[in-house]
Amino acid sequence: MLDLKHHTLILASGSPRRHQFLKEMGLPFEVRLKSVDEVYPPELKGSEISDYLAQLKASALKGSLAPGEILLTSDTVVWHKGVSLAKAADAQEAFEMLKALSGDWHEVITSVCFTTSSSQKVVHQVTQVKLRELSDEEIKYYINTYKPFDKAGAYGIQEWIGLTGIEEIKGSYPNVVGLPTQLVYKTLIEMVK
What we know:
The N and C termini lie close together (12 Å). It is elongated and about 50 Å long. It has helices at residues 16-24, 47-59, 91-101, 136-146, 160-165, 173-177, 181-192; strands at residues 8-11, 29-31, 69-80, 83-85, 105-115, 120-131, 166-170. The protein is 35% helix and 26% strand. The model has no long low-confidence stretch (mean pLDDT 96). The chain has 7 helices and 7 strands; from the N terminus they run E-H-E-H-E-E-H-E-E-H-H-E-H-H. The relative contact order is 0.18. Strands 1, 2, 3, 4, 5, 6 and 7 form a 7-stranded mixed β-sheet that branches. With 193 residues, the protein is α/β, with parallel strands linked by helices. Helix 3 (91-101) packs across helix 4 (136-146).
């Protein structure tokens, strides 16, 4: 069992899914938010993007950390045919993303950066996901009903599209939701030894 009694876990995320995961893992945490401009160098690919953005989010709060505090920042990227599918700006962009993913495999990569006042460690997990062929009507229904504009790749696996459209998954399910929980737990154990 992970004992954080000499540490305070700080989560720099407003994601209700990430909050729920930490609660269900039995990890007490505080939330601290500071927005950053999520821009990365264009030459980065796949996990390099999510690693970079997780560290960028940490840099906004690193200077305010007290001894014993562990800051968790994370970023999720949907990687498909050499292209990063970030959050969709509008319904048209969401439609184009889901149309591209339809009937094909893609990777969901979540990076988590663990920052203390004296150190930093970044880990990431890759999960492969296959969507069945979705009709235009199904894609439009999903976008209009669930408005997935806050999600990488314009979908949430825990919503209607995941329940009806995911044919196969290789790897961690929680990672696709937005946090590689087993990897987070394992890394925290190593850090507080």
